[in-house]
Design goal:
about 350 residues; two-stranded antiparallel sheet; two-stranded antiparallel ribbon; elongated
């Protein structure tokens, strides 16, 4: 009786191994990298299956990798630990550059507006010179002709400087576009190599460069950073296109009959401009013309522009005002984006 109880107790405390359990464990491939599952922050009030929002913006979190995700698209845990610091440094550098180019845009835009205003003033002075009362200067021979010639030279000078400032603005937007496309961090070389390196260029088509969708800092994935960067850069792209319209108009005005400068929207303003505009998606390969300006997400249906070579005073007042307004750039939203990104990265972007 004692032996029976002892045997039963031993079987309870030390149950025999489960054959099924042992067989399933043996089928696990040790070389297969484990899937990294990342939890996206959820709001306390709802745990529905709808796309989750990051805590500081309305940008939906990207799809969270699950256990069924392709192993090639998700970094193994050791690689993820090495990838994250590199990705963090890259993002800090790229967003710091975006903030710097934003300041360069503001500087170039302000300079261009000053030249545009000076150009308009020189043109209007020429236009009204024949009817202008000169007082005691009226007896000086050819005074109006000489004054008109000097004003024309000033107009040409400021027109050249306006075009130069516009070219700088195009360059700034190109840099911003390239930066917005450089948020990812790719594995360089074989993952089995004892020395692991990362770069901004993909060497493996199976490497998306986003660490498998894991958060880089706290909540945001690479996709979140890319989305807000695209939103930011798109504002400057649209504004650049509108400013090109103003530049074409301002460089076309002339008191001469016929006009000396007969620019059209389809004309290249400087050598290589169309290639630059293509990088910003502002040049149509189908029509072989720059894309017509539009506001925000509105469809552009602007007809072939016929620019007024001799606009009146009221029309010319609108151009510098429109330039200053920057209607396509929501300054409050731009500031908000940099604050949100800075908070996520635990830095101040200025």
């Amino acid at each position: 009786m004692v032996n029976s109880i002892h045997t039963t107790a031993s079987s309870i405390l030390h149950p025999p191994p489960n054959p099924t359990h042992c067989n399933s464990m043996a089928t696990v491939e040790p070389s297969e990298p484990p899937t990294v599952e990342t939890l996206c922050p959820e709001t306390p009030s709802s745990f529905s299956s709808s796309p989750l929002l990051s805590p500081k913006s309305a940008t939906p979190c990207p799809q969270i990798p699950t256990q069924s995700s392709s192993p090639s698209s998700v970094l193994a845990t050791p690689l993820a630990r090495l990838w994250r610091p590199t990705a963090q440094r890259n993002l800090r550098n790229q967003w710091s550059k975006l903030a710097s180019y934003r300041q360069q845009w503001a500087s170039s835009s302000s300079t261009a507006r000053s030249h545009a205003t000076a150009l308009v003033n020189a043109y209007l002075s020429q236009k009204y010179m024949p009817s202008m009362e000169l007082g005691a200067l009226r007896d000086i021979p050819n005074i109006k002709k000489k004054a008109s010639q000097k004003l024309f030279k000033q107009q040409v000078l400021h027109g050249g400087k306006l075009l130069s400032s516009y070219k700088q603005m195009v360059s700034v937007v190109i840099h911003m576009v390239n930066i917005s496309r450089s948020m990812k961090c790719f594995l360089k070389g074989a993952s089995s190599s004892p020395l692991v390196h990362f770069s901004g260029y993909s060497e493996d088509k199976n490497d998306p460069g986003d660490g498998g969708g894991i958060p880089v800092f706290t909540f945001w994935t690479i996709s979140c950073f890319e989305e807000v960067a695209e939103e930011l850069v798109q504002m400057f792209i649209l504004e650049l296109n509108l400013k090109r319209l103003l530049v074409v108009e301002l460089l076309s005005i002339s008191c001469k009959v016929p006009p000396l400068n007969s620019l059209r929207w389809s004309d290249e303003l400087y050598p290589g401009e169309f290639s630059d505009l293509s990088i910003c998606n502002l040049y149509s390969e189908e029509t072989c013309k720059p894309v017509y300006p539009r506001l925000d997400d509105q469809k552009s249906e602007m007809p072939a522009a016929r620019f007024n070579k001799q606009p009146d005073h009221d029309v010319l007042q609108v151009y510098p005002t429109t330039w200053l307004a920057e209607v396509n750039i929501d300054s409050d939203r731009v500031d908000e984006i940099f604050v949100e990104v800075g908070d996520e990265m635990h830095v101040t972007i200025s």
